[in-house]
Specification:
heterodimer; A: alpha+beta; Thiol Ester Dehydrase, Chain A; 5-stranded antiparallel sheet; 3 helices; 5 strands; B: alpha+beta; 4 helices; 22% helix
Chain lengths: 127, 150
């Protein structure tokens, strides 16, 4: 198997039901994600997407290309929150391959190109 | 300003069983459609012994153990003033539906930036199965402190 230089995954647009489901599944019921008024009071136009939902998509970016048990580590720095209605575009760029492990640098952007998160993943390659 | 005496504060470990229905709901929430995560026959069909949890699922197990909101309350930080700044996971062994994990969280660090306008709280979580660590995670929370002038 060749190791792709670039992997991509588009998610969304994030709907209110996605945020409600993620709140239920994750136990993160912060009203910033669910209540437009709270989001406004916090300085956001619309409810904020859980950073962990963006990170879950980053996880899917890896597992759909390399399999369910390929991920050795995943790290994310949240830069600007995605908001309700955003499309989240995940992209991974191969940074290094050593000893059967690939390292990808990951970015998440919205459709306007605003950087939402950056991160890195270490992936065990199939032998 | 968060008192640095909280560094080292650890939650009492508790054991959380990984439930198939919970994993399925999580998959639905994140748009994961691969049934190997909740359907044992589908998992066996691809050569897996059991249903593996999706990459960030353990964050939900961590929350079932002790929420970050509860940690913030303990520190006297209003939950509406915080954002999730960073998150990482190190996966040391696969985790499956049906596993029971012992979970504990510890405040690893807290520090200020921008003359106290921002406080950071770093929380590490350890996930163990039969005494062996299967995953560690680190969450960094940023607190937007209200300024005296506001």
């Amino acid at each position: 198997m060749t190791t792709p230089e670039r992997i991509e995954l588009d998610c969304g647009p994030v709907a209110a039901i996605d945020l409600a489901l993620y709140a239920a599944a994750s136990g993160d019921h912060n009203p910033l994600h669910l209540d437009a008024e709270v989001a406004h009071a916090g300085g956001f136009d619309r409810p904020v997407v859980h950073g962990m939902l963006t990170m879950a998509h980053a996880g899917r970016l890896i597992t759909r290309h390399f399999g369910e048990q390929s991920l050795l580590s995943l790290s994310t720095r949240f830069i600007a929150p995605a908001v309700l209605g955003d499309i989240i575009r995940l992209s991974g760029t191969l940074a290094e391959v050593a000893d059967g492990v690939a390292r990808y640098d990951i970015t998440a952007r919205n459709a306007q190109g605003t950087m939402l998160a950056t991160g890195a993943a270490r992936v065990r390659l199939a032998t | 300003m968060i008192d640095r005496q909280w560094i080292g504060f650890a939650t009492a470990p508790s054991t959380i069983a990984i439930d198939r229905w919970h994993v399925r709901l999580f998959c639905q929430a994140i748009g994961e459609t691969n049934a190997v995560h909740w359907d044992e026959a589908a998992a066996r069909g691809t050569g897996l012994a059991a249903c593996p949890v999706p990459p960030t699922f353990l964050k939900a197990i961590e929350t079932e153990h002790y929420t970050s909101a509860a940690l913030l309350r303990k520190l006297g930080v209003p939950v509406r003033s915080v954002l999730h700044a960073e998150q990482s996971f190190e996966y040391l062994a696969p985790v499956h539906v049906g596993d029971a994990l012992e979970v504990s969280r510890v405040i690893a660090d807290t520090f200020e930036k921008r003359d106290g306008a921002l406080s950071f709280i770093v929380v590490d979580t350890h996930f163990r199965r039969s005494e062996a660590t299967v995953c560690t995670s680190r969450q960094t929370i940023v607190v937007r402190n209200r300024q005296e002038s506001e």
